[in-house]
Every structure is written in C-alpha cells, then in structure tokens.
C-alpha cells in the first residue's frame, strides 16, 4: 500500500470515529483517559525499550544534544504523561454546552451548542510526550485525531499509541479515534494537510520553519503558533520596582519559551534612571543586551542592535532594548515588529493602561504583569495544545474550548417562515 | 503600475487604516455609516448613471437575464442600501467588549476582549449592493476592507465607493478603511488572496465554483459558504400537520436560497400516510419530486432519484425524497450527503429531538421548525455577511461578531511567574 492510500484509509477511519467520539458520554471519555494513564503506567518498560531504540538511532544519526534531550522518555516524563491524562480527565467537558438560548420574535427558540471540530491532524517534532498530551485534549473535546510525530521518535510514539488504544478499548470507544501515523515517509505530512474531506483542522507544533511550510501547503485550516516576539514596555509613569521585577522575570524566568520577552521598550523619559540598574541585573544573569543608538548613549558597553534584532525571537539569554518617545511609539513598534503573541505595559497611568490594552494587536495584552503568564495553565485552561498567533478562531493559549466550535440549535413548535 | 504593485499598495493602506478603525469610537463609526447613507441618497442619479453603463456593457456582452437582474440598481435597491446602512449603525458595537474577567490564583485578573480581525478581503459577483452591505458590516466591526466585486459591476461599484469615502471623510475616519478594487484585471483576485501580511481573512460570496477556487488558492484564512444541501426529516413520531407545513415551507417559501430544503427524508413507518398528501401539495406548487426506489412504490408517478441527487443543491423547484428506517439512518444520510448547513427533524419524541440536535453535524440544527429560519435577520444578528459552512471560527450566519475575535487581557499589580 502506498502512502496516499494509507493516509486516505486513516482519514476515512478518523472521519467515521469522529462521529462516535462526538457523541460519546463524558464519563466514557474520562474512563478512556484514565485507562490510558493506567496502560502507560503498566507499560513503562516497553516505553523505555522503544525509546531506547529511538535514542540509539538518533545518536547514530548524529542528532545534537538538545534534540536527544527532547526525544528522551525519562521516568519523570512518563510520570508527566500519566499525570497529564488524569488532569485532562478531571477537566470539564466543553462538548454539548448550550448558551444564549432565547426566544426570537418568530417563536423559535435559538441557542448555540458547543461541538467538536471533527478530525484534528497534529504534526509535531521530536518530543514523544506530545503524542499523549495532544491525543488527550482532542479526545476530551470530542474530536478524532491523526498524529504525525517526528520520524526520530517513531518507536516511542508507536509504543505510546498502543497504550492509547488500550485505553480507548477499555472504555468501549473506537480505537481509530486516535491514530498515530506508522510511517516515517515525509509524504504522509503532505497527504495529511491536503485531505479536507477527512481532516477539519491541522495543529502543527514545532519550529517556525515547519509551521510556515505547513501553513503554506495546507488545504485545510491551520491553527498555528509562529513565533513569540514578546515586548515589555516601561512607560514614563511606571512603578520602578514593578518595572524591574517584570523586566527581569519576563526575560530570565525561562529563555526558551515563546512567552519570554525578546525586546524591551523603555520610555526615553525614564531610561537614564532605569536602564543602568536593569543592565546590572541582566549582566549578573548573563543576558546579552543589544541596544538602539539612544540606548547605547546610556549603556555604552553593550552591543548595537540591528534592524533584524527587532524581528528576532532569540529563545536565548539575549535581549534587544529600544528607547521610545511615549506609548504611541511603543505600540507602533509592537504592532510592526512583534508576532501578535504577548506584550505588556508597565505603568501606573489609567488612561495609558486602557489604551494599550485596546490598541496592541496581540493575543495577550498585559498591564503590570510578566509576559510569562501567557500560558494555558496560568490562564486556567487546564492544559493547552498550543498558543495561537492567528487572528481567526482562537487567539492565545488554546485549550479544550479552542478545539471546539459552536453550532446553532433551533427549537420550534412547527414554525414556518412567512 | 502593475496589478501586483497596485494590490500591495491597497494592502499597505488597508493595514494602516485597520489600526485606526480598530480603535475608532462607536459614535464615529455610526456617524460614518449614516453619512454614507446620506451620500447614497444624494447620489441616486450618479449611481443610476454608472449602473446604466454596466447594464449596457452587460447587454452588449450577452449576460443572461438573471445576471442582468442581479446587476441592476433599481430605486428599491438603492433604498435598501440606505436602510441597511442605517440598520448597521443601530446595531450594538461588538468591539472592545470584555467578558469572563476573573482573578487567577497568581493574582492576575484575566479576561477576554472582543477585537476586530484586521483587514478583510471580500470577493463577490455581480450584485453591486453587496459593496455597501459588506463595507458597512466590516466598518462597524472595526475592520478595514478591500472589496473586489464582479468586473461587470465596476462602474456601479466605483460610484458606491465614492459615497462610502464621503461618509468616512465626514466622520473623520481614514478613507482607506474601505477600498474598492478599481481594476477588472482578474489577477487582482489572485493577489488579494495571497497577501497574508496585509489581509487577515477572505470572505468570498458567490457561486460554489468561485468559492472553491478561492479556498484552494488562498494563502490566508477563508470564511466560506459552499452550498446549502438542507434536509427535513419527518420522523415516525412527527405531528402530521407540523410535518406538512414545514416540508412545504422549507421547500417552497423561496427556491433560490441556501437554507431551502433540497432533500426530504421520511421515516418508512409514516411514509404511506404522509407522502401522497405532501406530493399533492408539491404538485400544485409545481415542485418536481425525485424519489428513491421505496418512495416510487408509494408515489409511482414521480421521477427516480440518482445517487447524484442526494448531493445536489437544486436552488429550483425540485426535491429529492428518500425513505429511511428510523432516525439513525436519517442522521447518517445527512452527515454524509449534506453540506453541514441546516437540517431539521420533525418529531414529538423528546429523546429523538435531543439526539438529533447533538448528532447532526451542521451549522444549524432544528426541531420542528423550517430550515428557512437559518438567516442572520431571523437569528437576530441584525445583518449577515454570509452563512459559514466551515467548522472553525464561525458556523452558520456570520454577523458582526463573526468578523471579530477575542484576545486575552491581563491586569496585574506587578505579578511575576515564580
């Protein structure tokens, strides 16, 4: 069987399973999730064995240390998968929720019912625990899933898939509700993103290059997260302590996350009193600063930023710093160079806080809080499948609700249009 | 200037205008809408003159009567545009609405703010009044718009665009907030749908062929309406009077609309007592019936339906009729052959009503009501830019809210992640 036929078969099975999973009871879905957790707990040895094959192949292929680290299934990561499944089982089920039910002048009663999207295709890179995370969120939100992980994790992903199938079977749900692509042929991705009859939406997770390619080639909608070029703007009326704490936290709490600050904007009126102290903190923490020309006048020992720096997601202990003359210039910079992810203003001024919230075109806009809060757990979503930088459907952290949509429901007593 | 450069210029202007229109006061947007209405009222002669050029060109090119009818700007249609603008001005402004504002354990306060999508591209066919309708909805929802109408309506559309610009200017809003493409070169469409830097979403309005081409070639998200293959299912426990009234209304109230019933499903248990009476009514109204083999046993004088009939949107006095053995078969037929638009069950049975609402995968699902109610005005949206048969973002009639999205807003007192 060739790849196109294989993917079509997965698609047909997923479409059929999506009908069953869409109407599955919350209790059955939860039982499946808990049974998956138990199956993973009981299969630790098999999981580690499979993972060791992937690790050995990876070493043979010369994968770098960071990639091997992401690939590894440690006991702690297996614990994490089990805990994650139990957490998703405990989350409220969004499916079937009816809101805004009201009578219309015609006598019909109109409301909106939350419904699954149908079949979700997930494309991701080396981390095998994504298999479990993504499958659990899609299942709880009533969707069927086709997962396509990185080829370097194929044995790990298949071992996890076996546990997932056990869980589905234990709850009497179709095993085809979660399918993990069993071929490493790259053509499988090309097929998955061009089957609108079988796949309703694609969620890619990985580097920007992968996501751009998928968005460009897909023939189905894509919920995507491109990059996180997040800003903190220290306003002229910022509380200095809050400004320092947030600027340090947003940059240094973790370097590799998408909600980490990459550019610091400082009102020129307070730059001289703020930047030297901040620069000392950053220096102690090993953060390299790259400043605009006016920043260099205050901090002559740092490197100069180029135009490219304003549009770069470093994911590293590097920070671009730019002076601006007031909030409007800060907002213009953010809307031009940012990635519409998460941006914060530090100010005590009510009017500026209000305007910043309205005018910054990002999925999360904050006043006096660290950009690091832009996260599904911090937002109370329970879990997230990713953070969307798109403008339609879902913006920001995407949890269970982001994997659903709403249809209209109409109740009548025989009404007809006149 | 070539078409690509021209479209890029429109795109840049639209992006810049979208920033201004996104933060425009509701009052200013309403003043612009009312000033547009006044400008159209004062320009009736110029509008009719421009339209006459299009009509003459259309007749010279041999456009058919239906197309010429859609192209014509009659006094009543001009009244309709004016009235539509005033209605949109009277609708509540969705932009900036904040919901679900709650404190999180970290101390941050988290909510969702409704925001415009940014720049919306509208591609449509011959009806020039769409220019006015679409522009008004996009403006009220805080979006900039680039409109590309049919080449046969170019003079009419440019005359309407002049009135729109007058209205924007009168309210002090940027005239580039609504731009009507001034070239009839088909390449303009290709450019418009492949400028993700300047256009956030495309809304095509027109025939299925046009929409499929656009969805296939677009590099930006598309909110689309493919077709309306709507069903009424008469259950074994239907109230006969309601069943007859709704089956007649859903088919014959208007033939050319997307929410018109195209296939009637009848439970075989009540077919013999229902179909002959229904067939008499349809015959009187000039509706051609095409039945499945079992329908032909009850109505031997009608035509036989082929497989193709189940997947056809007739938009005409033709109705496919199929007998099913119970609701599950009806739902399976609808989910397989329907277009996920609008489908209704006629039943007095509580459990079946509940299951039908949940299991039918359509943007509107109804119990004991005519499919003809699936409409922005009937649903109280005030106006609609179209009916989406997509599954992400917006399903069903798309009003002002469907042209917006939600971003997260976070209010803090200096909180940082620990």
UniProtKB/TrEMBL annotation, chains A, B:
GO terms for molecular function: glutamate-5-semialdehyde dehydrogenase activity; NADP binding. SUPFAM superfamilies: ALDH-like. One of its GO terms (cellular component) is cytoplasm. CDD domains: ALDH_F18-19_ProA-GPR. PROSITE patterns: PROA (PS01223). Residues 11-289, 310-374 form the Aldehyde dehydrogenase domain. Its EC number is 1.2.1.41. Keywords: Amino-acid biosynthesis, Cytoplasm, NADP, Oxidoreductase, Proline biosynthesis. GO terms for biological process: L-proline biosynthetic process. It holds the Pfam family Aldedh. It is an enzyme of class 1 (oxidoreductase). It comes from the Bacteria. It is found in: Cytoplasm. The keyword Hydrolase does not apply. Pathway: Amino-acid biosynthesis; L-proline biosynthesis; L-glutamate 5-semialdehyde from L-glutamate: step 2/2. Its main location: cytoplasm. HAMAP family: ProA. Catalyzes the NADPH-dependent reduction of L-glutamate 5-phosphate into L-glutamate 5-semialdehyde and phosphate. The product spontaneously undergoes cyclization to form 1-pyrroline-5-carboxylate. Belongs to the gamma-glutamyl phosphate reductase family. This is Gamma-glutamyl phosphate reductase. It comes from Marinobacterium stanieri. The lineage of its organism: Bacteria, Pseudomonadati, Pseudomonadota, Gammaproteobacteria, Oceanospirillales. The gene is proA.
